[in-house]
Design brief:
alpha+beta, six-stranded mixed sheet, 6 helices, 26% strand
C-alpha cells in the first residue's frame, strides 16, 4: 500500500521537485547527524579555546622572534659606560622575559664567590639541577640563577640556589643567553 502511494506521489511531482526534496532531506540528515555528534562529543568550545590560546602563543612567539632578530649579535647591556650594545628599559625587560639559557660560563662566574656552590658543582660533575631567568617586577631587574644538588665531603645530599642580577646578555642572532650574573 505504501508502494502505491509512493508511485502516485512520484507521478504527481515533477523531477526537479523530487530531486530538491531528496537533497533537502539529505542535508537535514547530515545536519542532524552533526548535531547528535556534537552532543556526545561536544568539544567545540574547548577546541575554540585551545585554538585561541595557540594563536596567542604563536603571535607572542613571532613578536619575540622579531625582537631577537632586531638586536645586534654580541653582548647586550643595560647600563652606561659600556662598549657593548645598550638596551633600553623596555628591551631589557623583554630580553629578560625571553631568555631561558644560562651557559656554563655564567654559572662558573657566579660560582666564584660562593665556595659551597663551587664545591657542590665540581664534586658532582658540574651538574646543574635547574636554571631560571625571571623578571622581578618590584625591583625592575632581571634575576637569573641555578640550583645545584649533590653531596660533598660528608656524603649528605645538599641543595643550594645561586641567583643574582643579570648584568649582560649575549645575543647570538637566534636566541639570547645570560652572559654575566652578579650574585646577591
Amino acid at each position: 500500500m505504501n508502494d502505491k502511494y509512493l508511485k502516485k506521489l512520484r507521478e504527481l511531482l515533477p523531477e526537479p521537485v523530487r530531486q530538491f526534496g531528496g537533497l533537502a532531506s539529505l542535508m537535514f540528515i547530515i545536519i542532524l547527524s552533526f548535531a547528535i555528534l556534537n552532543i556526545f562529543f561536544g568539544q567545540g568550545e574547548e577546541l575554540v579555546e585551545k585554538m585561541k590560546k595557540e594563536e596567542t602563543r604563536i603571535a607572542e612567539a613571532n613578536k619575540l622572534s622579531e625582537i631577537i632578530s632586531s638586536l645586534p649579535s654580541g653582548i647586550l647591556t643595560f647600563y652606561e659606560g659600556s662598549d657593548h650594545y645598550k638596551l633600553s628599559k623596555e628591551q631589557y625587560e623583554t630580553v629578560c622575559k625571553i631568555t631561558k639559557i644560562i651557559p656554563q660560563r655564567a654559572v662558573m662566574g657566579a660560582n666564584l664567590i660562593n665556595f659551597k656552590a663551587t664545591k657542590i658543582y665540581t664534586t658532582n660533575g658540574n651538574q646543574i639541577a635547574e636554571t631560571f631567568v625571571n623578571w622581578d617586577k618590584e625591583s625592575k631587574k632581571c634575576v637569573a640563577g641555578f640550583v645545584l644538588s649533590g653531596s660533598i665531603d660528608d656524603g649528605e645530599n645538599q641543595k643550594i640556589t645561586v641567583s643574582g642580577e643579570v648584568l649582560n646578555f649575549l645575543s647570538t642572532g637566534i636566541d639570547t643567553r645570560v652572559y654575566f650574573i652578579k650574585n646577591f
